[in-house]
Structure formats: structure tokens, C-alpha cells
Amino acid sequence: MQSEALEFVESVAYPTFGTILLGGLSDSRNRIPLHTSAGLAYTGLESKIETRTMIYIVKGEPVGYFNRQKMEYSEEYRSPFAVMKEMSLNILGRFNLNPAENSLCFDSENIGILSGSSDSGAAALGRALIEMNPGGKDIDMEKFENRLRVVSESVGRSLYGGLTITERTGSRCFTRQILSPEAFSDFVVLGCRFNETRKPSDAIHTNIVKSSEYEARVKRTADKAVEMEKLAKNSKIQEIFELSMHDTDEYHRLIESVGVKIINKGMAEVINSVNQYRRESWASYIVTGGTNVFVPVHRSEYLSLRERLSGLCDEIVPLKIAEGARIIGKSF
Ligand code: MEV
User: Fold this and answer.
1) What is the 289 CA–ligand 1 centroid distance (Å)?
2) How far is the CA of 328 from the centre of ligand 1 (A)?
3) Which parts of the chain have pLDDT scores under 50?
């Protein structure tokens, strides 16, 4: 299709997992987080893990392929077509192309992702659109992130990469990076994957707010973000993962109390085994909304811990922390 494309941009973005977990959104249209959260972008240490997206212009009607499957055209607010349409006049104008005859199209592919693919999908789309936009990165990034948030609520994690905080202060919501991926180079995260279909995250978002502890949780996430930023300033990576592990414990206790159970028997066994390992050495665990246990460990020990955890889940994928969304090719 690139051969038919009048212009194109290709981007790559990496999936994410939370380190201060998000639970609760303003409403189903705007999907603004109800509290501050934090997260990491990840990719494979030994394998390719990413979303690749191409935005291109053709003569004719808009078409879109999501993960190589043709997507029905829709102008519904959450649809990638709607985001592209809002920017298409400016973009087509930049290339002196008539909007009555030409359209913006997209083609995305997810490779090897364990969970967090909606963040990388939205970020790769957004990053490509920024590049196509006549003002480039001069656009209002906070506003644009909030537009992309409608596609995926934690898109900022993937847009900026490394360790990020998505702050919710007053009416504002925006993401900033607090540590680059290089800061994590002495650590590996073992992605312990289970072949089970995940529950939609909205089951968490709509139920967690019913907990009598929710107001306290909102306050605690803000305090944890302050603490995490202090640790980041002092490059205390192990302590950051400790904080995340305690946040996983608190989060899952809360959502289980309102009837949403993510940690199944197998996942609990992985966590038990990590807890045993912690008696001799250091490792920790994070569980978000998917059927994976993310196990951070010192790089020098990841092979032995991997050996120990093997057989407890369907696959163990060694991961490293990834950078933000970037451009890998363009026609102009
Ligand atoms: C989905 O919006 C959020 C969770 O994956 C938790 C997180 O990663 O912060 C359920």
C-alpha cells in the first residue's frame, strides 16, 4: 500500500504496564483518570515487542487496518478514524492535497505484546499524526494526549516511554517522564504470561469506584507518585519496584473487594514463588489488568529466576524498559 501512498509516516511505540495502577475513569467518553498513576513502557530483551503503525495518504476513501485486520470506518469518538479526521484538513493542506479527493489511512501491527497494546496502538498512531501535522511537535501535547486518551486512557506511558507519571491535578491530566529507559539497564522484567483471555479493563474502572476505600486510594496514589519521583531522582530502581509491588497488593485487594478478580490460581503461584525467592535474594512483582505477572529482577539473576519460575505459567518473556514512541520512516 506504500506504493499507492502519496505521503506516509511510519512510527513505533511500546506497550506498557502500570507501576502505580490506574483504576477509575471520569466517564466513558472522555476517559479521564480519576487519580494520578505511573507506568513503564517495555519491549523484549531477546525478542521484538512493539506496535508499528503507518499513516498514509491515498487518493480515495479512508481505510484502516488494526493489527492487519480491516477496520470498519467509524466516526465514533474513540475510533482512530475520528482522531485522523480531526487532523486531516491540516495534514492534507500541508501537502496541497484536496480533502474532497484524498484521505488519511492507517495500518497497524502488534508484535509479541503481553498486555498494554492499546497504549502502544494509540501512541504509535498519535506519534505518526504529530509528524504529519504541519506544526509537528508544536501542537499542544497536553491537549493531544487527552484526545488520544479517549482511545487508550494510559497512552501517555507509551508516548513518552521510560518511567512516567500521569498526573491528575485539578482539571488537568498529563504525563511526564521521570526516568529514561537507560536508568533500568541493570534490571530485567520477567513477563510471566498465562494463555487466558483477560477481563476488559472497564470492569475494573467501573467497579473500583464503588469501594468505600476509593477516596483514600485516590489520595494514596498522589502520595505514592511523590514518593516514586523522589526515588527516581536518586536512581533507586529497586525501591521503585518495591513501591509498585505494594501498590499491586493494595490495588488487587481493593478490586477483589468489589468483585473483580484478576489474580487467578496460577498467577498467585508465581507470586508465591517470587515471595520465596525474596527470602534469599531480591525480585518483586506487578499485576495490572491482564493475565500476566511482571517480575522485576536484577539483570545478573534473571536467568536463574526464569529457570525457577518456568513451568508455573505458559511462557516467560524477558523484558526491558523501552523508550517513547518514535518515527522510523517517512516520505517527506
Ligand atoms: C487500564 O486502564 C489500567 C490497568 O491496566 C491498570 C494499570 O496498568 O494502571 C487496569
Assistant:
1) 6
2) 28
3) none
